[in-house]
Amino acid sequence: MNLSLADPFSLSQDYPEVFSHSLHYGHSSCVIFNRRGDLLASGRHDGTVVLFDVETGGLARIMRGHTRSVQSISWSHDGRYLLSSSLDCKCILWDLEDGSRKRIIRFEAAVYYAELHPFNHNLFAAAIHEDHPWLVDISTPKANRIKLSTLPRKSTTTSEDEAAPPSKSAASDAKALTLITLFDSMGQYIITATTRGWVNIIHTATQTTIFSSRVTKSAIVTARLSMSGRSLIFNSRDRILRTVHMPALTDEDIEDPSGILFEVEHTYQDLVNRLYWNHCDISPTGEYICASTYMNHDVYIWETNKGSLVKILEGPKEELGFVDWHPTRPMIVASGLETGRIYIWATNNPQRWSALAPDFQEVEENVEYIEKEDEFDYKDRAEMTKARLDREDEEVDLIGMDDAPGNFREEEKSWTMPVLLDIEESSEDDDVKIVGPTAATSQKKKKAGAAAAEKKGKKRKAGD
């Protein structure tokens, strides 16, 4: 998108409004943007990890290593490394410099969810099927695995649990399973969510549970953290979404966690249809949240300040699963459960060509142009040659990129994924299919190019 041609009023929109297009390359099970928002990672049901270029919709990488469905994908802070977890009991750390598998970590059971440390790509936390969560350090040749606790910290239990018999409460907590493992924005703490509705905050360095809070009595299946690290959203089986303000923990809070405030700010639910939520995400600013619905094809958007519903995005005619919000643009992607397509909603950005030429005027119908008397007069050849030589001395940047608006520091932009020219060629059936209003122009160009090539081939055969 050329920012100089975009309408400034459309750029100020905080959330998407219209369906843009869809991408189809295999059956996608999960999707997530990198921190810069220029790449979209998709994990497929066959175990393949695919990277899309957000601007063009084309393929950037195809990485094969898993044998079963990919459950989660996590980006490193600089965007060079990618961690994928799968039902084949493996976590793979990919190096996007050349698309190689840097490390492969095998577990005893399927991996529900895994996330990289924000500033250390050799450290990640994983939630395992019917097992304790693990903190894995792969900085050494032999991975160091540290088991994390699922049990809540007893000193911070709620009044309901204190009223229950100790034996019954302990037996119930012992049966809990961890489904989600997240790092906070600085990586100092690990946030885990269990099937009993408990949220545990674990110190990364000591692996001790410093605080626990029960936000619901049902299982928490999804948890997302905003880019600022101050807002948390939880999706549970009781059909309610909950947002919680993440407290800024200090050393005093670790010693005495009784002063930590971890309360639900807003709850979001459909009181009429009583819909289940498949997945949820929070906007980069934390001002909006979105969620996909069970047995429905809509994406709901709420405002977090007042807790009011602001938009229902409609598009495909299939149930949606994984959703993710773009880090810098008002854009939301979601994966379809039936076809595996990736659906994209964005804002309608009409281009203003007057930004390049102030005297440019848009007309509704063709107008005959009357040129000036000296407009096309022949100029002096010496002046033309001098101007051409001056332009040849100028340095032209063909690979530089303008930064999109966002809150990134310079050190976060230091790495850009290179283009590999020796990658395997994909067959015609494996080409990315882009469908939607914004894809009409590119599809016409592609068909016109194919028709021209076919016509040229026929002329050559006729000449022979």
From TrEMBL:
Locate the region Disordered.
149-169, 426-464
Q: Where are the WD repeats?
A: 63-104
Q: Does the keyword Repeat apply?
A: yes
Transport as a keyword? Answer: no
Q: Which domain of life is it from?
A: Eukaryota
Localization in the cell: Nucleus
State the UniProt keywords alphabetically: Nucleus, Repeat, WD repeat
Question: What parts of the sequence cross the membrane?
Answer: none
Q: Which GO terms describe its cellular component?
A: Set1C/COMPASS complex
What InterPro entries does its record include? RBBP5/Swd1 (IPR037850), WD40/YVTN_repeat-like_dom_sf (IPR015943), WD40_repeat_CS (IPR019775), WD40_repeat_dom_sf (IPR036322), WD40_rpt (IPR001680)
Where does the record place a coiled coil? none
Entry-linked Gene3D superfamilies: YVTN repeat-like/Quinoprotein amine dehydrogenase
What the entry lists under PANTHER family is as follows: RETINOBLASTOMA-BINDING PROTEIN 5
Name-wise, this protein is Chromatin binding protein
To which species is this protein native? Arthrobotrys conoides
